[in-house]
Amino acid sequence: MRRHRTDLEKLVADTVIKACIEHTPGLRDSIRELLAKGATPAQVSRKWGARSPLYRTQPTTALTVDWIVDEWEREQGRVKADESIDTIAE
What we know:
By secondary structure, the chain is mainly alpha-helical. The protein contains 5 helices and 2 strands; from the N terminus they run βαααααβ. Helix content is 64%, strand content 9%. Strands 1-2 form a two-stranded antiparallel ribbon. The protein is globular.
């Protein structure tokens, strides 16, 4: 279950994606290609996201990967517009 998405979170998401498109479009394209070819969002996040070993050396990149995955999930209808990237601990 996910938390409610705030206006601040939406602004952060939009800013991160715009910055990625402008400065590292290859990262976004690569992640989206993996997802389009059948990798699950959980697999991508575990390998390159904030919970991955990458976070220790490249935290900004890892967090960007999570936002790219979230953007893709929203486009695919897997996440509703009012749902946060954060989950509620159960």
